[in-house]
Amino acid sequence: MDTALDYARYDRIRPIRWTGTALELLDQRLLPFTVEYVSYQDSDEVAGAIRALAVRGAPAIGIAAAWGVVLAARGVEAADGAAAAVRLAPAMARLEAARPTAVNLAWALARMRRVLEAAGGDWHDVIEAEAHLIEAEDLAANRRMGTLGAGLIAPGSGVLTHCNTGSLATAGFGTALGVIRAGVARGKIGRVFAGETRPWNQGARLTVWELRQDGIDATLVADAAAAHLMKRGDVQWVVVGADRICANGDVANKIGTYQLAIAARYHGVGFMVVAPSSTVDMATASGDLIEIEERDPGELLAAAGQRTVAEGVQAWNPVFDVTPAALVDAIVTEKGIVERPDAARMQALSAR
Ligand code: MRU
Predict the structure, then answer these.
(1) Helices (DSSP H) in 73-122: which residue ranges?
(2) Predicted confidence (pLDDT) per residue in 144-170, tens digit
(3) Residue 42 and residue 128: Cα distance in Å, rounded?
(4) Ligand 1 center–CA 97 separation, angstroms
(5) Which band of pLDDT confidence, cut at 50, 70 and 90, is reported for residue 4?
(6) Which of 9, 13, 54, 59 places its Cα 20 to 30 Å from the Cα of 28?
(7) 3-141 and 145-350 share one CATH topology?
(8) Shortest-distance atom of ligand 1 to CA 274
(9) What is the set of active-site residues?
(10) Residue extents of the structural domains in the chain
(11) Residue 184 and residue 113: Cα distance in Å, rounded?
(12) Is the pTM of this model over 0.90?
């Protein structure tokens, strides 16, 4: 049960703080050695923070963008929400353009737009309340998914995760990392492995640091070690998050996820995707239609600011990939679990 879990121990980090007058973001570019919140007063600066990965992770960028709308509304005078929506549209479009793949960004902004357009003269209060709600609902969804996902894991299992899907990537607790937290807390998980997640090293810099805050031991592995790890029998579940889940159950997530799913299927290892319903995009029929973000190839050419690749070498840096639904054993959302997802089962989930 949810109540059995000690959230004070297993949910310590908050990447996003609303002070009432400003948005504070834990700068994830500086972790793990510097824990520093940067204060934002301006929505375009929030868009810049999303683009630069100061705040990252699908749910977290949606929440940050919702607060960005509240900041954009500062000083805007309009008789009602519909008039305000027109004034705020350019700032909201700039927030939405910050990153293309995670649907949570567009989802949060659409939700803010919807309540804004329906609001009366108190629209400033209405959008601030909505941003609070988006954040609170995300935390509650994560806790629920933790319970549901941990229920799929047999006692003593080893798990492998990818990227960072924890408190840092969400309002708190995390998606895949929430399942791992709940699984560890309930004695289901014997060992946690985290892939480095090259080139930005979300696993190496963020995930293992985050788990240490909770006293959870995790073993870092090179991304290239995953298949070998599975072959040894050390892992029973790969547990990952998602940036967008399509109407047919295809899953976009951090680059490298697809090859983990292939390796998992080959070795008889379970493949679990954990994401709130805000990540489910029923308007996108399949993964082929998802825009995959490509970032600066320079991320591949240097480590810690030091060039490691010969001058003149070219690189290609797609930062997400799509895992076909056929390779997914379970999608865990706060609305329930979809086993062996396909279009019909995703439709049934979204109708819940
Ligand atoms: O580029 P990032 O670090 O924002 O990518 C994050 C991921 O791919 C996560 O797995 C995903 O957003 C889910 S976070 C709960």
Answers:
(1) 81-96, 103-118
(2) 999 999 999 999 999 999 999 999 999
(3) 15
(4) 17
(5) low
(6) 9
(7) no
(8) 15
(9) 243
(10) 3-141, 145-350
(11) 39
(12) yes
